[in-house]
Amino acid sequence: MADSIDARSAARAVVLAILIVAVYSAIYMILMRYEGRAELADPVNAVYWVIMTMTTVGYGDIVFRSHVGHIFSIVVSLSGIVMVFAFVLPGLVTPWFEHLGRELPERVPEWLSDHILICGYGPMVERLTERLDEMGIQFAIIESRESVARSIFKKYTTVWGDPSDVQVLRNANISTARMVMVNYTDEVNADIVLTVREVSGVEIIAMVEDLRHSRFLSYAGASRVLSPKTMLGTFVAQISAPSCGECVFPGAVQLFGTLSLAEVPVFPGSSLAGRAVSDPLLIETGAVVAGIWKRGEFTPRPPGDVLLSSGTVVLAVGDSEQLMRLRLLGAGDERRFLVIGYGDVGQRLVRLLCEHGIRPVVVDRRDLATDRFEHIRGDGYSEDVLVKAGIREASCIMVMLNNDHDAIYSTLVARNLNPDAFIISRANHLISTEKLYRAGADYVASVPLVASKMLLNIVTPESEDLTILYEGLELRRYSVRRRSPMAHRALRELALIERFGCSVVAIDRAGDAVLSLSGDTEILPGDVLILLGPPGSMDRFSRVFGSG
């Protein structure tokens, strides 16, 4: 549309310029005859004189002698200047340069090989591309939507074209790619997978919106089919219901040996609510608090006198038994669950809750014919509907709406109606995470973050140096060499939190775990430190102490 508008504007500018030159040429010939110089009053001389005058070149070989002719010459000269700046530059020259700047690449460099091809850029792969770029892993994006391609081609290697077209795939060096990821609708993904299989035996990872379509993508030739929404539903079920499988911890990261880093929510009525981090009840579990989340704000290694409250999420280190003891303490006695939204994520979440003996109340616009759970029909952001669903008595509210604007508003209403409930909200775009926390969510489950984590584990299964935990938080390993500037220095002296904003959550010392860390803990050569912090702080740490 924009290109057609530019073309029409340019055509109008050309027609106007021709019309003005024609009118001035006719006046020129009339005035030359008026001065008695008919030999110069022909069309060729007329057009020549008009153009030379309008462009201010003015060779001076043809000039008027009368005052009328002089005035006409001034008018033509001034109008030429106006015409150049008002019509020619904006109508012809500027659009031409803009067009050159808008040229989208239709192939990748010939040297690009062993790269990952991502077909379709969007929220699901937004975080993944950032991570791949940070890690120096080569990739290219094939994007058929011009507006999306324009927004990314200066940042990432991009091919503008239809990924279900064989030539477009060849232009993206499909023959030397190590992996292809498809990220459009399920129907379009199937078409792309079939096309890729025509020209290559490369591994294909297909993202599926509806899990029921998985088998069709597999039939088409996909090597793996991933459903981030289904995974998110499982994730939320596990974090909200301790009975969802013993020793199962959503998002847990294995550190070394039997130790893991896991999230433990503190629900209303929990034994942990109101207790300090150094409370004996917490210490007796054997798990160690590495940090706490409160409405999106993270505090690493909190002091012992910091109190835990309902809505806090504890990031703890321990083995499976230690973490389970801590998790049961954080669960609370009341277990009234309200699920707002029964889409792909909500269905998976409700099914798992029901399987583990939890009968939630579900709010959805549709009429759900089922006796497995109580259903209230209506909008998930309507105050009257939520009150009817018993939101004021709910201990855990899970906002699983598919639209982020609706989810943010629903979270605001839910927090207003029940200030004490533990609220888990779903985010479909990374940019919505902070807004949901501001709206009152205690925990935001991000679809793009789950998708990125799943995909990155496939891309770099051997990598143990960088693990995605949450938006804006990373876990890295650092090996302390004999000549490291950290060797034989105490944690207090290093002041990692104050200087870099990161902290040591555990130390692997020759196979033994060091969890009870204090300011006096000495770092020894050969230690493997598990560091936790924002990406920027980790980068600053690496610049000072090396990559480890």
Structural features, described:
This protein has 548 residues and is of the alpha/beta class. The chain is 42% helix and 20% strand. The longest helix is centred in the N-terminal third of the chain and has 35 residues, at 67-101. Helix 5 links the parallel strand 2 and strand 3. The chain is elongated and about 115 Å long. Strands 3-2-1-4-5-6 form a six-stranded parallel beta sheet, with helices on both faces. A six-stranded parallel beta sheet has the order 14-13-12-15-16-17, with helices on both faces. The protein has 19 helices and 24 strands.
Summarize the structure.
The chain is α/β, with parallel strands linked by helices.
Termini separation comes to 53 Å
Average predicted confidence as pLDDT: 85
What percentage of amino acids are in beta strands? 15-25%
In helices, the fraction of residues equals 40-55%
Largest sheet: 6 strands, parallel
**Which structural class should the secondary elements be placed in?**
alpha/beta
**Uncertain residue segments:** 1-5
Our Rg estimate from Cα atoms comes to 33 Å
- Quantity of strands, as a count: 24
Number of helices: 19
What's the overall geometry? Answer: elongated
Oligomeric state as shown: single chain
Widest sheet: strand ordering: 3-2-1-4-5-6
List the helices and strands and how they pair.
Blueprint lengths: L1 H33 L8 H12 L12 H35 L14 E4 L3 H13 L3 E5 L2 H7 L5 E3 L5 H6 L7 E4 L3 H14 L3 E5 L6 H7 L3 E3 L1 H13 L12 E4 L2 E7 L14 H4 L4 E7 L2 E4 L12 E6 L1 H12 L5 E4 L3 H12 L5 E4 L9 E4 L5 H6 L7 E4 L4 H14 L4 E6 L4 H8 L3 E4 H13 L6 E5 L2 E7 L9 E2 H4 L1 H5 L2 E7 L2 E3 L7 E2 L4 E6 L1 H11 L3
Parallel strand pairs: 1-2, 1-4, 2-3, 4-5, 5-6, 12-13, 12-15, 13-14, 15-16, 16-17
Antiparallel strand pairs: 7-8, 8-11, 9-10, 9-11, 18-19, 19-24, 20-23, 21-22, 21-24
Helix pairs in contact: 1-2, 1-3, 2-3, 4-16, 9-12, 9-16, 14-15
